[in-house]
Design brief:
There is one protein chain. The chain is 11% helix and 23% strand. It has 752 residues and is α/β, with parallel strands linked by helices. Strand 2 and strand 3 (78-82) form a beta hairpin. The relative contact order is 0.03. It binds 2-acetamido-2-deoxy-beta-D-glucopyranose (12 copies). One 2-acetamido-2-deoxy-beta-D-glucopyranose binds at residues 288, 309-310, 313.
């Protein structure tokens, strides 16, 4: 019995002690949890949704405040703050650290700024800290390494700087470490390899430098490793290739160099992206062991050698990108059977040769095929027409051929691809008549690029069926005939290049109906007649090139009203006559204006001075006369001025030597006279041409002009003092002369 009583007593005692403990935990810290929460609220200075309006001294218990959760066992202790996406602005109060039972803090996707309070390091129970998508500044407090229960640390998308604190490597239970999109600097601490529970490591978009620590090889649980868009250097540590749980390995846009390491079999790796580094050497055969790989991009590196055939064992591959390397060899003829899930194949800018495999049609989901800038030859396989999803086909800059009609059959086949948006066949060896069936391409076609081939024939009138065309380039071919009026119905056209063909007839006035047009090139053809004033309806036109035709008549003032013209206006090498309309002054955005080699006459209008962006002005080989207008001095950006082979006269204006960027000045074969300026562009004889102006003198001795003999001209340029000394008496004398002649009733000042 004694023992039994003793036991009861002990139980009661334990109960009293434990309730007393509860009492201290439940009442005393409760007050401080409330105070801590109110302190948190006090630093939130904007709460547009009123999320914290329940947080006040009223009757509602703070455990029921919005976003607050409390412990079940310790009913007054706050265990979670869930306040994401509430547009809260202000600072994070250090008082949060007084909520010592906190296991979870989610303040993500708000507008908090200030720094992360150092005191958070005292939250020993904290498991989840998500402060992503705010504007937090300063360094990551190294004290966070004390939160020994932390499993998730997400600080993505803030403005944190400084280095990654090595103390984080003490967080042995950490599963997700996400520090991407900040301004973190320095190297990745070697000790990070201690985070043996890590599943996700994301350090994208920071200013990290140095090499990737080889200790990464100890992160044996790692599933996602993302270090993209940083400044990491060094090689890819070979230890990475052993991370057998890895699913995604993303190293895009760093400065990694050296070879791609040999991979062990990583049964889960599905995504490998090393685009835009400086990796060299050959592609390791061992990549063929990554049997789950779906995405492989090694583009924009310095890889050489052939594509290892083992890669064609990766039958799950849907994206295969090796663009911008120096890869050689051929694509296997059965590639489409080997990689049946391929959706994206991009091999642009390598040295691949051989034929385009017809079997690609067996990769039935292929929608993006880019083989531009290689050395592929042979014909384009018509089988590509079976690719129902094909939307992007660029084969430009190869040696692809079509000689016989049958070799053009791919065009008809491609009309089956109802999703086709881009077809680029520029710079190949396609010869012969343009197949009529191009007009049967899918109406989804946006880009049709056939330039720099040897395509002959006419532009079919039914081209109007391609109503979605925005970009049409048929330049540098052998097209003849006229531009069909139906082109004017392609109202979405923004870019039309038909230059360098043998097209003739008039430039259609209805082209002006293409009001979205941005760039129009019709140069180097045999167009004749006048420039239609209706082109002025193209209010977005940035560039117009009608050069090297046989256009006649005057330059329509309407066209010069197109202040949208910002790149260049080239009407050179035609038969245009008349004067340059005053409206040229509306070209306030133009960079280059070329009216050379026409029969334009009269003076350059003063309004030219309003084209203040002008860098290049070609007026050579016309019939212009008069003097160089002083308004040219407003063209402060002028780099190149050619007025040669005209009938300009008068002095070379001194302001030309003050144009800071002028590096080419050709005034030859005119009738300029007098002293040549010495400064600016005139200092360098190689930048100036003045030949064929018999009355010029002085200037840079390298110009080999005669010395100036006329004192008046010479003096004018030498010194203002001399100028005055001479001019005042001379002027006085002339004035006297005029007065005397006036008095004598003689005719007036022509004498001067
Ligand atoms: C809440 O009440 C306490 C005690 O009554 C007081 O000290 C504190 O200033 C109050 N806080 C607010 C925000 O009203
Ligand atoms: C953190 O918050 C962001 C934004 O609310 C959310 O998208 C993300 O899933 C959270 N991250 C983690 C690791 O829980
Ligand atoms: C917490 O971390 C800081 C910085 O790493 C350290 O100086 C401090 O001693 C730690 N505090 C405790 C209580 O462990
Ligand atoms: C942590 O990493 C460092 C450097 O890699 C190492 O020296 C240390 O032994 C590791 N500590 C633990 C506990 O693994
Ligand atoms: C990145 O760091 C380098 C030096 O490590 C520094 O020169 C550069 O300005 C930094 N860039 C940014 C965007 O912070
Ligand atoms: C990868 O693991 C294998 C065996 O698991 C080991 O022999 C090899 O040394 C490891 N390689 C690296 C680079 O760590
Ligand atoms: C790329 O690496 C090579 C050596 O492999 C080096 O010569 C070159 O300068 C590097 N290029 C860049 C852009 O870093
Ligand atoms: C490619 O590698 C060669 C030889 O190592 C090097 O000279 C070259 O600069 C590299 N190219 C680039 C773009 O880094
Ligand atoms: C492709 O895989 C098969 C079997 O999985 C293997 O026998 C063959 O050697 C592999 N081919 C290459 C080129 O690696
Ligand atoms: C294109 O479609 C036509 C009719 O539907 C069919 O006869 C032809 O075989 C198809 N061409 C290709 C390359 O699939
Ligand atoms: C025209 O192109 C746009 C954008 O590419 C697309 O959304 C639209 O469906 C196309 N129209 C037709 C008739 O294909
Ligand atoms: C051009 O537009 C005018 C007026 O909007 C219209 O009358 C004419 O039919 C159009 N011409 C063509 C070829 O689209």
């Amino acid at each position: 019995m004694e023992g039994f009583h003793a036991l009861i007593f002990l139980i009661i005692l334990l109960y009293v002690i434990s309730t007393a403990k509860y009492a201290t935990l439940g009442i005393e810290p409760a007050a401080s949890d409330r105070a801590a929460l109110l302190s948190f609220k006090s630093l939130v200075d904007d709460d547009p949704f009123g999320a914290l309006s329940s947080w006040n001294n009223g009757s509602l218990h703070y455990c029921r405040w919005h976003g607050v959760s409390c412990s079940r066992r310790h009913p007054h202790r706050v265990t979670a703050l869930d306040l994401k996406s509430l547009r809260l602005a202000g600072f994070v109060s250090p008082a949060v650290a007084k909520l010592t039972f906190l296991r979870r803090i989610d303040l993500s996707d708000n507008m908090l700024d200030g720094s992360i309070p150092e005191d958070l390091g005292s939250l020993r129970r904290l498991q989840y800290l998500n402060l992503s998508e705010n504007s937090l500044r300063g360094m990551i407090p190294s004290s966070l390494g004390n939160c020994s229960n932390l499993q998730v640390l997400n600080l993505r998308d803030n403005k944190l700087d400084g280095e990654i604190p090595p103390t984080l490597s003490r967080l042995s239970g950490l599963r997700k470490l996400i520090l991407s999109q900040n301004m973190l600097q320095g190297t990745i601490p070697d000790s990070i390899g201690n985070l043996s529970s890590l599943l996700i490591l994301s350090l994208d978009n920071n200013n990290l430098s140095g090499a990737m620590p080889s200790s990464f090889g100890s992160l044996l649980s790692l599933q996602i490793l993302e270090i993209q868009y940083t400044s990491l250097t060094g090689t890819i540590p070979s230890t990475l290739t052993n991370l057998s749980s890895l699913n995604l390995l993303l190293l895009r846009e760093n400065n990694l160099h050296g070879e791609i390491p040999h991979f062990a079999e990583l049964p889960f790796l599905s995504y490998l992206d090393c685009t835009s580094n400086n990796l060299s050497g050959t592609i390791p055969i061992s990549l063929g062991r990554l049997s789950s790989l779906e995405y492989l991009s090694l583009g924009m590196n310095n890889l050489t050698g052939e594509i290892p055939s083992s890669l064609y064992n990766l039958s799950s591959l849907n994206t295969f990108q090796l663009y911008y390397n120096q890869l050689e060899g051929t694509l296997p003829s059965d590639i489409g059977n080997a990689l049946p899930n391929l959706q994206v194949l991009v091999m642009t800018k390598n040295q691949l040769r051989g034929r385009i495999p017809a079997s690609l049609s067996n990769a039935s989901e292929l929608n993006y095929l880019e083989l531009e800038s290689n050395a592929f030859h042979g014909t384009i396989p018509p089988s590509l027409g079976a690719l129902q999803s094909l939307s992007w086909l660029t084969l430009a800059l190869n040696r692809l051929e079509a000689r016989k009609l049958s070799e053009w059959s791919f065009i008809t086949a491609l009309t089956n691809c109802t999703s086709l948006q881009v077809l680029d066949l520029r710079y190949n060896l396609l010869q012969g008549m343009m197949p009529k069936s191009i007009v049967n391409f899918s109406t989804s076609l946006n880009f049709l690029l056939l330039s720099n081939n040897q395509i002959s024939g006419i532009i079919p009138t039914e081209i109007e069926k391609l109503i979605n065309l925005t970009f049409l380039d048929m330049s540098v071919n052998d097209l003849r005939g006229t531009i069909p009026i139906e082109i004017s119905h392609l109202w979405q056209l923004q870019y039309l290049d038909l230059s360098d063909n043998m097209l003739s007839g008039e430039i259609l006035p209805t082209l002006g109906n293409l009001t979205l047009m941005d760039k129009l090139y019709l140069g180097s053809n045999e167009f004749e007649g006048a420039i239609p004033p209706t082109l002025s309806k193209m209010l977005m036109l940035e560039l117009l090139n009608l050069s090297n035709n046989r256009l006649s008549g005057s330059i329509p003032q309407e066209v010069l009203r197109l202040s949208s013209l910002a790149s260049f206006l080239d009407l050179s090498h035609n038969l245009l006559n008349g004067s340059l309309p005053l409206e040229v002054g509306n070209l306030i955005n133009i960079r280059a204006l070329d009216l050379s080699n026409n029969r334009l006459s009269g003076e350059i209008p003063d309004t030219i001075g309003k084209c203040t962006i002008l860098e290049i002005l070609h007026l050579e080989n016309n019939l212009f006369q008069g003097s160089i207008p002083s308004s040219i001095s407003n063209l402060r950006g002028l780099k190149k001025l050619d007025l040669s082979k005209n009938f300009y006269s008068g002095q070379i204006p001194a302001f030309l030597d003050e144009l800071p960027d002028l590096k080419y000045l050709n005034l030859s074969f005119n009738s300029f006279e007098g002293q040549v300026p010495m400064k600016g562009v005139f200092k360098n004889a190689s930048e100036v041409s003045l030949i064929g102006n018999s009355k010029l003198c002085g200037g840079n001795p390298e110009l080999h002009l005669p010395k100036c003999t006329s004192d008046a001209f010479a003096a004018k340029h030498h010194s203002d003092y001399k100028l005055k000394v001479i001019l005042i008496p001379v002027g006085g004398a002339i004035l006297c002369l005029i007065i005397i002649m006036g008095l004598l009733g003689m005719g007036s000042p022509q004498i001067i």
